[in-house]
Amino acid sequence: MQPVGPPTVKPPVPPAPDSPTGTDAPAFAPPGPPAPRGSAADLVTDLTLFALFYGGLLIAFTEMGRRLGVYPAVWPTDALAVGVYFLMFRDAVGRLSAVVALVSIVVHLVAFGHDVGTALAAGCANALTFALVGWGCVRAGMERGALRSVPMVVSLGVVAVAGTLPGAIITAFVQFIDTNGAFGPLLLGWWIPEMASVVLLLPPFLLWHGRAEDVGLRGSEGSRPKFSREEELAFASLTLAASLVASAYYREPLLRDLGGAILLWFAFRLGLFATAVASSAYALAVLGLGMAQVWPQPLLLTDLVATMLRLQARLVLVMLPALLIAAIMAQRSRQQREVQEDRRRLAYALEGANDGIWDWHLPSDAVFFSARAHRMLGLDPDHAKKRLTDYGEVVHPEDLPAVAKSLKDHAEGRHLLFQAEMRARHRNGSWLWVLVRGKIVERDPVGRPTRAVGTVTDISQRKHLEAALEHAASHDPLTGLSNRAGFDRALEQARRRLVRDGALFAVVLIDIDYFKSVNDQHGHMAGDLLLTTAARRLQSAIRAGDLVARYGGDEFAIIAAGKSREEFAAMADRLHKHLSRPVEVEGLALPSSFSLGMAVADDRTLDAAALIAEADAALYAAKDAGRGTWRAVGIAARTAEEAAHETPRRQMLPHSGLRADRRPPL
Questions:
Q1: According to the 3-state scheme, what is the secondary structure of 443-454?
Q2: Residues 67 and 191 in one domain
Q3: Which residue range(s) make up the domain with 435?
Q4: Number of structural domains in the chain
């Protein structure tokens, strides 16, 4: 049967039979809360013992408070019960809440002689406080000893405030009905003791299971301290006790408040668990001295109950900052230990790697490069430079902005590691590609980086392979020209420049006439020779910035920029004449007949596919005209001789399938 109450943590999985330690957890894991015993008899025994414990607390603190005149201003019963729950149980919040309610009802009826309504209200209030505080701590993850962080300490404060309020409201409301007093003071009289007891007494219980790994800032110090941790802990404890003794002897509250400063000593140096224990002991001692009325009461607080409420509020304000600082120092200690472990791992990894290492002290600009890093650049390790700025000429100027940006992103926390690929100058003047990786391992108190370490790797071979693969993917292996994919990318870029800047360009499609006959009569080697010859001639004929590509088997394509149609017409005529020269190799004369089709992109709404279709239509027009000539689209004829090289647009439409109204006829 599942326990009634808030969701709780599941019990641990039973250990494997072959586990030598009886658990699958690693040997170095901190001890956790004990697993619940499974039999019904064990469960009944646990609940009975808890009921006796809670009943004893309830009677003891009630009678003590009444005799000392501070009831209910000091009420640690529920906080101590929750603490025992975290020490002894894991998933019984619902059952234990029911036990708390039942014990409270019985004690109020039998021991205190209250009526049934008052007893029921007291049982409901105590059970509700126990359940909400315990469930809130479980939901925040505190049952695993995880109070060693600032969010956990803040969560403890929230649980203390919100978890104790509903029970205090119930109790204050019942008392308000019985006494007809003011509801606000009654609520504060019940709420402040419950809330203060959670903050003052619960942290040692929450931190108990993780106390072994909580060594404080001392555990992360690199140098050997002058005093051992036990000696410093004893000295700090004696100092705290001495302040309380002096405060009681001289009846001086200022000496009592000095304990808050001593608690900061615990927080900064001795760990969160030691701080929690010292704070709880300090709070109990102060409350005991307060109930003994050691210090003179303020003139406005002649009632001892009001004095104790005020004193508990002051203790909460003293203890919470100490816990927060201790949590911050615990986080810092863990981070420093992690950095030290990272250094060791890096050293072990570099022993088996062929990488160079570097160590940079940012404030002084002092840098260290290993012998392997120097040999990578052809430098002599015995004449190493001492500052990073002395290596400024080693980095390629074009790579400096990217390297600086990567380092800045890492320093500002946007990236976990610093990583950059850059070109470095070798001693012989050549450039090699290196991969620089590193991490900031030290910062000053304000968070500025002071030290970074990392590696440098020669990746030149990988870069050359990537360049070769990229070239192979975008170039024709026979002619060395761009392939169809490279042409399509260049065409899209030219079209965007046309739309953006109005930059005219033309697309020229070139087809080798009778290419199949050359292959059939002279063989494929002759065909390849004709293709490579045409590619060289086209490359030598185009201008810088233009692109020539192998568009298909025996077809080439050119993207050429220009300023006028006349310029494009002169270019087409020059290309045709340059290609039409005879091709002779080892006494073999190959036919060199080429047909050219050109389309000028002067319409900003024209897409790439339509432009290719127009150039293809012009190419077919050139072939229909007898081959060995060129035709153009979008160029108006100026003379009869020039008009002989052009075909009216409507005559090309059957080949391209384009609409007749796309452009005006030529």
A1: ECCCCCEEEEEE
A2: yes
A3: 353-466
A4: 4
What are the tens digits of pLDDT across the range 105-119? Answer: 999 899 888 888 889
Cα(187)–Cα(182) distance, integer angstroms = 9
Based on the domain organization, do 639 and 569 belong to the same domain? yes
Residues 618, 612 contacting (CB under 8 angstroms): no
Q: Where on the phi/psi map is residue 508: left (φ > 0), alpha (ψ -120 to 50), or beta? A: beta
Q: Specify the pairing of strand 431-443 against strand 418-425.
A: antiparallel
Distance CA 508, CA 630 (A): 10
pLDDT in tens, 477-495: 888 888 888 898 889 888 8
Residues 270 and 418 in one domain: no
Q: Which amino acid is at 663?
A: R
Q: What is the CATH number of the domain that holds 590?
A: 3.30.70.270
pLDDT of 3-21, one tens digit each?
333 333 344 444 444 444 4
Whole-number Å distance between alpha carbons of 155 and 147? 9
For every residue of 445-497, DSSP letters joined together read TTS-EEEEEEEEEE-HHHHHHHHHHHHHHHB-TTT-SB-HHHHHHHHHHHHHH
Q: Yes or no: say if 599 and 496 are a contact pair by the CB < 8 Å rule.
A: no
Sorted by sequence, the CB contacts under 8 Å of residue 502 that are 6+ apart come out as 604
Instruction: With beta carbons less than 8 A apart as the criterion, state whether 9 and 34 touch.
Output: no
Q: Which residue's entry shows tokens 């060791």? A: 344
Q: Are 411 and 362 in contact (CB under 8 A)?
A: no
